[in-house]
Amino acid sequence: MTDSPTAFFTASTHERPSERAYAVNLDSQSPLKTRSLFQIPDRATVRSAARPTQPPHPTLADDTEPSLYFAGNSLGLLPLPVQTALHTELQTWGQRGVLGHFSHPSHHPWVTVDDNARHLLSPLLGSLPSETAIMGSLTSNIHLLFAGFYKPTPQRFKIIMEKGAFPSDRYAMLSQIEHHGLNPVDVLVEVTPAPGEKTISLDQIKRAIDHHANETAVVFFGGVQYLTGQVLDMASITAYAKHKGVPYVGFDLAHAVGNIPLELHAWNVDFAAWCSYKYLNAGPGGIAGIFVHEANKDVTPGFRGWWGHETGTRFEMTGEFVGEEGAGKWRLSNPSVVDVVALEASLRVFKEAGGIQTVREVGKRLTAYLEHLLLTRFPVEEEGGERPFEIVTPEAPWRGQQLSLRWKEGGVEELEKRLFREGVVVDTRRPDVVRVSPAPLYNSFADVWDFVDALKKVVDAEKKQ
């Protein structure tokens, strides 16, 4: 391991990492004190999910205890401040109606409701507030960005991306290509892991750029790979592509924002899109966002809407479009107020935590501790010479707050149900991957210890059957 769980904290010399007391001691020294700001589902609720069509399970002594929730890479938990923020907004709607657009008791009228969220989000992105827009949903935003940045010509028409990208990204690329009357076989360059490797390497991406640079219009990758948890070297990819003359480089940051620190402006990334319901904890289907580097101020959005019009004259209704400065001109419609205030409240938790750097440092140690316990509680010599899983996530620093376990005999659906019965929530991807995400804003070192203990119990019980 390149990261030790004790590199950031000092544990008692009287305890060993394999002991739960060691984990509790690490928690006592963690700078993050935000767990109490989240509602964590109880174990009874999780257990009921394992048998949705059956009678309730018998009452267990720990039913009211918090579950072991390790699926924040899929859907983050509810920050309690979000409840308060939503209640306030519903009251304002009820008491003021349309007047809330310009007169608001909390001094953020709905006409500019996204301003606070933009300023809170920018430090997580490494962007200027003017380069950030709160809008839409992830895939629709990718389409909007490509409508402006992807302008294929007979000389430059190719898109370089990862073959194993999240399916929606690939669907978007295929439909963009077909929209321009082109053949995906001629246009789409997909980088795949080398034989025997679990992830793609920077060298492979560079070789693809070398081979296709003169014909490439856009390079587009996920900043953090959704299945393996691999962090891509976005700075190097961007610099290399631009050095080779590729006009634009963009990223899908769905699994990156709120997970790892980003420096989109300094890296000269041209554009990016993300969702807010994973590590940002803004709620299921929460409002998404885009980044457009200020150097691309002359790139014209492929589609326009009234919320992209300059704020000061938007309501003059002249019919002549005057774009907002920066990324704001890419907006189409006024954003959902309840979605935006949920995002703002969730982002304030990051600020209270001390910022993304603090979150990242604790996350690195949580993930390292998870890795340590998985390898020591499932020693090869006790597993018949082979563990039941392999960790497909790269070692630090090229990973975020996620370890992906490839289950060698598949059957992850049944494994997930067995973990539900133990009050454990993970995220599975058929046929054989279990994604475990220790989110430092609400997961503890004790959670990690308890999870591995529960996993060991489930695996050992299965062996005896």
TrEMBL record:
Subunit structure: Homodimer.
GO cellular component: a single term: cytoplasm
Role of this protein: Catalyzes the cleavage of L-kynurenine (L-Kyn) and L-3-hydroxykynurenine (L-3OHKyn) into anthranilic acid (AA) and 3-hydroxyanthranilic acid (3-OHAA), respectively.
GO BP terms, alphabetized: 'de novo' NAD+ biosynthetic process from L-tryptophan; anthranilate metabolic process; L-kynurenine catabolic process; L-tryptophan catabolic process to kynurenine; quinolinate biosynthetic process
EC identifiers of the protein: 3.7.1.3
UniProt pathway: Cofactor biosynthesis; NAD(+) biosynthesis; quinolinate from L-kynurenine: step 2/3; Amino-acid degradation; L-kynurenine degradation; L-alanine and anthranilate from L-kynurenine: step 1/1
Family to which this protein belongs: Belongs to the kynureninase family.
Name the UniProt record assigns to this protein: Kynureninase
Gene3D superfamilies found in the cross-reference section: Aspartate Aminotransferase, domain 1, Type I PLP-dependent aspartate aminotransferase-like (Major domain)
PTM-bearing positions, type N6-(pyridoxal phosphate)lysine: 278
NCBIfam families reported for this sequence: kynureninase
Keyword list, A-Z: Cytoplasm, Hydrolase, Pyridine nucleotide biosynthesis, Pyridoxal phosphate
InterPro entries attached to this UniProt entry: Kynureninase, PyrdxlP-dep_Trfase, PyrdxlP-dep_Trfase_major, PyrdxlP-dep_Trfase_small
Names of required cofactors: pyridoxal 5'-phosphate
Stretches the record annotates as Disordered: 46-65
MF (Gene Ontology): kynureninase activity; pyridoxal phosphate binding
